[in-house]
Structure formats: structure tokens, C-alpha cells
Amino acid sequence: MRRVAGRTRVRGFSLIELIIVVAVTIILAGMAVPAFGTTLARMRIQTNASQMVQDLRLVRDSAITYQQDLYVYVCVTPTAAQRTTYFAEVSQKYPLTGVHYSPGTDTSVSDAFEKRTLLYNMVCGLPVQSGGAAYSYTSADTVTAGVNTYLVLVFHCGQGSYFRGQPTLLDGTFSGTIWIPMQDSANQPTRYWYVGISPTGEPSSSGVRP
User: Fold this and answer.
1) 91 in the Ramachandran plot: left (φ > 0), alpha (ψ -120 to 50) or beta?
2) Separation of alpha carbons 28 and 40, rounded Å
3) Rounded Cα distance, 9 and 14, in Å
4) SS3 206
């Protein structure tokens, strides 16, 4: 820095220095964008999984509280377009007669029967068991509504031979933990997240394939 005619001259950046700074900024931004995209995709699929865990826990707790066996319907129709929804029952339609809500004929009723549509165009994959093999069930464990077929999960209230909150399929059986995959095909490679229901009825979620 030197004084010229009573004024102070401050040396600025050269053109080369500015070009280097801009180039480094672009490189760093390019490195950050893929990481941000991965984080955003993970947050989206976790949002769906967390909602399902919350709904399953609510159904289980409601079965215990209201002393009613309550159902969860998970669409298992092969086409992906029809596996975007599931239904959670938190009280029976007619408790005195044991009639349940139906995904085919009943609309959502506040605090009684909730229809959930997965966000971000994601779908529920076909249920699997620990180890990754397809979960075994029969037509006796499903109900059909229109063109859709639903696997029915029952949370028991504790009557008969079932303990409070115990999950079974519609035929009364339950073999190990059942995992329902959340599938996000919008991002490549396809991303999965898993919602599990243990033999005790406690729901959980995991990003690791069972």
C-alpha cells in the first residue's frame, strides 16, 4: 500500500484470483448437490415410514384401550399404482356386533378409520419376513375391495388366547416379524425403507434390508 497525492490506494483482487475463487466455489457446490439430493430422498421415505409406524402403534394402543380387535389393511395388489394406500382402524364400525370398517365401502372417519396415501408417489412393497424372503400368507388373510386386495393385520385386545396388543393375520396366525417395504422408485437406484411389526405388536422402521 502506498500513498499517492494524499490518497490511499488499496490493491484489489486480480482477475486470475477471482476466476480461481469462482472455480473452487462451483466445484464445492457440485460436490454438495448429490449429497443434498440423497439426504432429501432419505427424509422423504422416512416420513412415510414414520407415519405408518405411528398409525400401527395407534391401532395397537386403541385395541387395548377400547377392548376391540382392530384391523390394518395393507394393499398387496401386484401393480404398483394400487399399492399407494393403507387403512388403519382405530375403532370398530359397530362395536356391539363386531363389524369393522372396510376399505372398499367406507370413507375415512375422523379418529375411527384412516386412509393413508403415501407421499411423494411412493408405494408399499409386498411384505417380507426377516431374511428378505416373501412373507407367507393365504387368501384367508386378505380381503378384496374392487380391484384391490388387502392383507389384513389384526391387533387383538387381549380376549381369548391372545395377549393385549398381539398382532396376527386374519386367520389368527403370525410367523415372526413382518416387514412392509416402502419403495421410492423416483430416485435411482430405487430406495427402500422397512416398517416392521414384531410378534409383540411393537412397530419399528429400518433402512436396512431385513
Assistant:
1) beta
2) 18
3) 15
4) strand
Q: How confident is the model at residue 146 (pLDDT cuts 50, 70, 90)?
A: confident
CATH of segment(s) 13-206: 3.55.40.10
CA dihedral 121, 102, 73, 69 (to 10 degrees): 150
* The residue to which cell 407421499 is assigned: 119
CB contact set of 85 (below 8 Å; sequence gap of 6+): 75, 103, 115, 116, 117, 118
Asked if residue 189 has a cis previous peptide bond (ω within 30° of 0), the answer is: yes
91: number of Cβ within 10 Å: 18
21-30, 78-87, 159-168, 175-184: least confident range: 21-30
